[in-house]
Amino acid sequence: MPLLGGIRPPIAVLCVLILALAGLTAQVLGPGSDPVVPKAVLSSQQHYAEDGAIALRASIDERVTDLRRTAAALNAGKPAEPEDVLSDLGRTYQKWTGTTVVDLESGDVLAARGERIPLAWLDKDVLTGKSALLPRMVRLETGDVRLMTMALLDRKDGPQQLLIASNSLSVPPITLGPFRTMAVAARGGEVLATAGFEQSEALNSDQQRQELEFLQKQMSDLSAQAAERAEEHPVTAKQPGSRGYPGVSGTLTGGEYNGRVVSAGYASLASSDPEEKDSVAAGLGLTVVAMLPVVAEQSGSTGRELYGLIAAGALVVLGLLAAGFLWARVQRPLLRLFLESRRLARGDLTRPVGTFRGGEAARVGNALERLRGQLGGPGAPDGPGGTDGGGGTRRAGRTRFGIRMQLVLTAVLLLLWCVPVGLLLNRTDDSVSVPATMVNDQRDRTDLVSDRVRRALNEAQADLVSTSRLVDVSDRDATESVLEDALRKHTRYAALYVVGADGEVAARAGGDPHDWSDGKDLPLVRVSGEGGKRPVVQAGAPVPEEKGVTLVGEVRIEFLNSLLKRPGLGEVRVADAKGRTLAASNGFLAFEELPREALTDLVRAAGVRVGAGPVENGLLLRDGGNVTVAAAAPFSGGGVAADAGWTVVSWQDADRFQITAYEREDRSVLAGLLGLAAIVVCLGWVHLVVARPLRALATSAEKLADGDLKAVLYPTYHDEVGAVVRSLELIRQQLQARRQQQPRRTAEPRPAEPRPTEPRPGEPRLGAGGR
């Protein structure tokens, strides 16, 4: 009879899963050579390229926004001469290589500053249509490429003028670290700018010059590959479910020279939030490539490589033992019960029911033997020729070693492999070797985030300087209108307000203002709000021609937190000079201390001035079996934010890196979890489909053997247990019919009544009413 379900499928599935897991264990934990370049190093170069792309995109977008904002302010303000416009623009923003004001009607140059801007590229397509006034990349006569940004000056009662600003498409001014180079590539793979290469004139030997030529050629080839891959859609280019950088990014591996292999990461410019805001820079088709030669790993044989093959063989042996145990103690007794019950249901009562070792199978077998006697089987209990009428010789109590205990023993047998493999095999400690590149990259990327936050605060203060020119203290309504418009355009602010010389708020927009003291020794970017729920970061700009009046903007903490979130960098925080937290990539408490004393010491050490100023530091912390990579980078460089004395500190556990030792440990844990999952699935399957119905079957069979013929037996599943239940139901019906067909015992006859005697002669006869 074909049986669907039952005990056979879970045992077969368990065998298949064990063999598959053994093969997977032998493959991922067995002998294999280590990669020439660790995956952690390649991922770090990818994250570095993403950071560079973010910095370049933010720089280009900020330049476009600043130029358009300046033009809008000039259009709304008083008329100014072109020379004065360029002078004010140069004093406020020192970011353009050249600026020009052109009369649109005549095409004449009205004013120019800095580098000469060619105008041959200006045509109708640039000034009209959907792409009007969008930034353009223009190649100069010298061969250099410049990014041209445009804004329209359209004052009332005045001619239309075009404000043009040019800047070079240079590599973002970020810390590259030793031996790293970076390039900006256009569509088609043309390298527009590079940084990090040494000048050939400064090299001392021909071998160094040959290495430089090799690296430059590698950068050209890798840039062409990166530009081609950057043309893919960000969704299809990534693995399913992966998040992080919104654009296209990845890793590349180049050639080898003098024992060092070229590793590279690339990232296309993409909007920070494509769903909410489009990026002008993202439409330029630029790609940032970060390249770093690393020492090739020597893939040697280690003693741990054989552990995978040994673990796979042990799993096969234990799996076969577990499957054999289930076959011998569960499957065979069930099949025997099925055959015995079917034989009795068909009326074959000549042979006694076979004996079983114990458990539910023995209980059902004893009940079948008693039922055979009740059906009239010879030599059976409760039957003719039986040993006793009560069935004492084959009655069996409830044995403790049932099917559930057998499943537990099978699980314990398999756990003898899962627990050691998952918890003991390939375990790591604080002696794991972490590549020095990872420590250097953690330090350099932390310095990049620090520079990013510092520039954002400088931009916030520069926006306040630009907005302060529109403030009219005498007209409160007009000033609040200007502040509300600025607050609506700049989401980085939580509140804007004008503070007078007496400290009173003259006009405000947004949230509640906080105290602002105008001291000479106080920086224009500061923090307050100690004792509150969140720090208050303030930036100020003096209002022109108004002594003691300051325009103050409160920077949202959420804005600073968003600048700190970078994949592959771990936990990132902004700390003040005392090591207290001001912003973090994850949740934090206002002004809380750093979680480790070593991090606080690192922040203090980073703030010590060495030479021209404080420098970034990186450490590898080994404590209690854990390895942590930490770095701290103080604010350095230009701008008002450099005087705040803040430091960006980051740290992450080394087990997050894709290092071979940690990967083997993770794979071992995964193998143990997969084995545990196979145990739960297969043995849970047996428990639900076989064990529970079999225990119910044993109880029903014993009740039926004790004479309970009223309860109808229904099979739960159409399998071995269900077949036995159906046979018991047939036996119950036979016993019920047998009881009904038994002849009734005849009742005993009543005693005969005495017959009346005849009267003797001479005696009177009694009449009907006489004596």
TrEMBL record:
One Pfam entry name: HAMP
Biased composition (Low complexity): 735-744
Biased composition (Gly residues): 374-394
Matches recorded under SMART domains: HAMP
UniProt keyword terms in alphabetical order: Membrane, Transmembrane, Transmembrane helix
Any one GO biological process: signal transduction
Superkingdom as given in the UniProt entry: Bacteria
Region (Disordered): 223-250, 373-395, 735-771
Name assigned to this protein: HAMP domain-containing protein
Organism: Streptomyces prasinopilosus
